């Protein structure tokens, strides 16, 4: 059996129906463990004090903000190349979740920025690129909302997602060139553990796992709703025809 | 192929609003700025290059929804899609004619409007150079946005939402080139990026635009 | 030129409206489509012109050979009749607009702007474009709308001439054009009726719960 059989709506509904409760429970477990551990059982940073603890929300949401777009890009490509409807609907379903993640990253960043840099907002390259990413999400969702025919909407938003990805990446380099910012360098990488001490690192990994699972659960849930919507409208238009 | 370009230019001149509208909007925008930030010439001369770049960008935006909409409404686009001219070529020519009607006049008018904003004279050269390199990319991205929204009744506002994020790299490198040029810093990187964006757009976007048009005509 | 379609299913928007359309048209022959409004004449013609890809079935010809005339005239109001024609002649690479002008007697209107033409004159101008395309298959959607009797005759003779030169045509029309080699195809039997309509919509899958 090939993996593409899951692209059939019926098949997808069966599988995702079983998967969804599992993913949701795992996600909540990871989030609770990660956040409680991070907030209450890690020491304060010697320079940043307790403000540093916002990383357990900030870093995972920022990661997912980018990964959600990546997932939309892959799903759009699958739709354009293989025309699997579920893929297009999954991309549509992921967009609002990605938008929310971007917003969380921006807001937690502002809250963290105030004690650290003395300002809620600075035109720092990373902040700026997340703001630009936010606008890309808005445009993508607006295009989905504006087009009536679902297949045409899927086609056009997929193309927008492809072109948008190139320009989002380009914007990232452009803002780097435009303003060397305040942000600390990547504080998390899997091979260099020198950046973050272990005490912060492990609860952070658990939070990230929680966010990844949360994203998965939300996308599954929303994709299922989208499939039901398509099913309903397909039935309605068939009724109208007879 | 030249026929489509000639026709579009002819229509832009005859239908009115083509050449004039973008330029007039650009002028008004530049006139509004001193009222907003005050008449202090130091401040104005510092922000002049940025204002002129943002102004040029917004003026480009103004006429985007007309690129395909009129042809779509009167049925010409259907006929063009069945004509021997590939839609990719049609999209390129549409972008070119949009640039000739808006981008080029804006580039030429920018130094004159710079005078209104006390723009330092050494900035003029860099402004014209960066606009000349960057505005074709704006027209091509705009054509792509217009192709995406051609089937929609009120696509005008949506185009702005789709196209403005795509405009950002061009704006950043364009305005940065002028800023660095004015301060006597090297501008090579910014101008090279600007040229690269325009070249990349010219190479790839016609395919995206044509694909979007075909999907919209289905 | 001979052409045929086989077991064609066409869609309008996301609804399949025609299924199992099979016909062939010989060189010099005209096929007149008859069907009530909304039955899918325009849908079929757009499919033949290559604008809408078929849901299923095969087209045994290249859309490159089809010249399509839609409901809309596709004229530019600000351009003169001559400029409108010259534009399409350049696009189709035929350059010479004289045959089109002669066929629809447009010579007295050449310098007039399209916005100053009457509806019937616009229609004539729009139809004369078919002559310019130099393509073998004409696909015409309600070509005679707003034409008077005299101009309907003019149009018929243009089509007849095209057929005599080895072309062929598919027309959706309600009136009898008096074409010598016309054959009528009733689209009603091909209308897609709810349950048995083939659909590539996986959301209509019966097993779906």
TrEMBL record, chain A:
Keywords assigned by UniProt, alphabetized: Cell inner membrane, Cell membrane, Cytochrome c-type biogenesis, Membrane, Transmembrane, Transmembrane helix, Transport
TM region positions: 20-41, 61-81, 93-112, 127-147, 159-179, 199-221
Instruction: Name any one GO molecular function.
Output: heme transmembrane transporter activity
How the protein sits in the membrane?
A: Multi-pass membrane protein
Q: Identify the main location.
A: membrane
User: Which Gene Ontology terms describe the biological processes this protein takes part in?
Assistant: cytochrome complex assembly
Residue intervals of the Cytochrome c assembly protein domain: 4-183
Q: Where in the cell is it found?
A: Cell inner membrane; Membrane
Q: Name one Pfam family in it.
A: Cytochrom_C_asm
Of the GO CC terms on this record, one is: plasma membrane
* Its biological purpose: Required for the export of heme to the periplasm for the biogenesis of c-type cytochromes.
Q: Which family does it belong to?
A: Belongs to the CcmC/CycZ/HelC family.
Question: Could you tell me what this protein is called?
Answer: Heme exporter protein C
Q: What organism is the protein native to?
A: Litoreibacter albidus
Q: What is the lineage of its organism?
A: Bacteria, Pseudomonadati, Pseudomonadota, Alphaproteobacteria, Rhodobacterales
Automatic annotation (TrEMBL), chain B:
GO annotations of cellular component type: plasma membrane
Sorted keywords for this record are: Cell inner membrane, Cell membrane, Cytochrome c-type biogenesis, Membrane, Transmembrane, Transmembrane helix, Transport
Protein's cellular compartments: Cell inner membrane
> Could you state one GO biological process linked to this protein?
cytochrome complex assembly
Domain of life, per UniProt, equals: Bacteria
Any GO molecular function: heme transmembrane transporter activity
* Membrane topology (UniProt): Multi-pass membrane protein
Ranges that cross the membrane = 12-37, 43-64, 99-119, 125-150, 157-178, 190-213
Which family does the record claim for this protein?
Answer: Belongs to the CcmB/CycW/HelB family.
Q: What does this chain do?
A: Required for the export of heme to the periplasm for the biogenesis of c-type cytochromes.
What is this protein called in UniProt? Heme exporter protein B
TrEMBL record, chain C:
- Identify one Pfam family in the record: ABC_tran
Instruction: Kindly state which keywords UniProt assigns to this record, in alphabetical order.
Output: ATP-binding, Cytochrome c-type biogenesis, Membrane, Nucleotide-binding, Translocase, Transport
Q: GO annotations under biological process?
A: cytochrome complex assembly
Any one GO MF annotation of this record = ATP hydrolysis activity
TM stretches of this protein:
none
Residue stretches making up the ABC transporter domain = 3-206
Q: Quick check: keyword Lipoprotein in the entry? A: no
* Entry keyword Membrane: yes
Q: Which InterPro entries match?
A: AAA+_ATPase, ABC_transporter-like_ATP-bd, ABC_transporter-like_CS, ABC_transptr_haem_export_CcmA, P-loop_NTPase
By its UniProt entry, which PANTHER family does this protein fall under? ABC TRANSPORTER I FAMILY MEMBER 1
Q: Report what the protein is called.
A: Heme exporter protein A
């Amino acid at each position: 059996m090939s993996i593409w059989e899951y692209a059939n709506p019926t098949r997808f509904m069966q599988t995702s129906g079983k998967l969804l409760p599992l993913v949701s429970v795992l996600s909540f477990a990871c989030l609770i463990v990660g956040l409680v551990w991070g907030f209450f059982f890690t020491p304060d940073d010697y320079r940043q004090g307790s403000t540093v603890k916002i990383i357990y929300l900030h870093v995972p949401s920022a990661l997912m903000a980018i990964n959600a777009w990546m997932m939309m890009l892959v799903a759009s490509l699958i739709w354009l190349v293989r025309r699997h409807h579920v893929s297009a609907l999954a991309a549509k379903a992921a967009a609002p979740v990605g938008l929310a993640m971007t917003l969380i990253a921006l807001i937690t960043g502002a809250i963290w920025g105030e004690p650290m840099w003395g300002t809620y907002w600075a035109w720092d390259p990373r902040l700026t690129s997340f703001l630009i990413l936010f606008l890309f999400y808005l445009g993508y969702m607006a295009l989905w909302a504006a087009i009536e025919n679902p297949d045409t909407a899927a086609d056009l938003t997929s193309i927008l997602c492809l072109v948008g990805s190139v320009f989002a990446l380009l914007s990232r380099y452009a803002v780097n060139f435009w303003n060397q910012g305040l942000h600390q360098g990547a504080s998390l990488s899997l091979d260099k553990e020198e950046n973050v001490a272990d005490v912060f690192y492990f609860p952070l990994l658990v939070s990230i796992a929680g966010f990844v699972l949360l994203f998965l659960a939300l996308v599954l849930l929303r994709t299922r709703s989208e499939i039901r919507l398509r099913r309903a409208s397909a039935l309605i238009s068939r009724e109208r025809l007879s | 192929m030249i026929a489509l370009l000639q026709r579009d230019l002819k229509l832009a001149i005859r239908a009115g609003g083509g050449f004039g509208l973008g330029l007039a909007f650009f002028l008004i925008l530049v006139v509004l700025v001193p009222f907003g930030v005050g008449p202090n010439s130091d401040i104005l001369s510092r922000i002049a290059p940025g204002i002129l770049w943002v102004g040029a960008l917004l003026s480009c935006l103004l006429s985007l929804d007309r690129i395909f909409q009129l042809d779509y409404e009167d049925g010409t686009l259907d006929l063009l899609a069945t004509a021997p001219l590939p839609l990719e070529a049609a999209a390129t020519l549409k972008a070119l004619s949009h640039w000739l009607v808006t981008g080029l006049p804006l580039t030429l008018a920018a130094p004159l409007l710079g005078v209104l904003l006390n723009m330092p004279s050494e900035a003029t050269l860099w402004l014209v150079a960066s606009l000349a390199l960057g505005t074709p990319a704006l027209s091509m991205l705009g054509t792509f946005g217009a192709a995406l929204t051609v089937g929609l009744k009120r696509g005008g506002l949506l185009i702005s939402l789709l196209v403005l994020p795509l405009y950002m790299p061009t704006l950043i490198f364009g305005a940065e080139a002028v800023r660095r040029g004015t301060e006597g810093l090297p501008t090579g990187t910014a101008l090279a990026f600007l040229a690269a964006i325009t070249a990349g757009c010219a190479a790839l976007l016609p395919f995206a635009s044509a694909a979007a048009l075909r999907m919209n005509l289905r | 030129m001979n052409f045929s379609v086989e077991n064609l299913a066409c869609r309008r928007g996301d609804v399949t409206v025609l299924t199992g359309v099979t016909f062939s048209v010989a060189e010099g022959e005209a096929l007149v489509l008859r069907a009530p409004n909304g039955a899918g004449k325009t849908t079929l013609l757009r499919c033949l012109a290559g604008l809408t890809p078929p849901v299923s079935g095969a087209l045994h010809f290249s859309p490159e050979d089809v010249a399509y005339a839609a409901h809309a005239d596709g004229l530019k109001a600000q351009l003169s009749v001559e400029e409108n024609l010259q534009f399409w002649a350049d696009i189709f690479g035929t350059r010479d607009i004289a045959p089109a002008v002669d066929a629809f007697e447009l010579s007295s209107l050449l310098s007039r702007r399209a916005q100053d033409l009457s509806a019937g004159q616009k229609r004539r101008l729009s139809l004369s474009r078919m002559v310019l395309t130099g393509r073998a298959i004409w696909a015409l959607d309600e070509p005679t709308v707003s034409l008077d009797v005299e101009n309907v005759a003019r149009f018929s003779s243009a089509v007849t001439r095209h057929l005599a030169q080895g072309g062929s045509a598919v027309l959706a029309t309600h009136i009898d054009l008096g074409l010598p080699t016309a054959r009528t195809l009733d689209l009603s039997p091909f209308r897609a009726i709810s349950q048995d309509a083939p659909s590539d919509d996986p959301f209509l899958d019966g097993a779906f719960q």
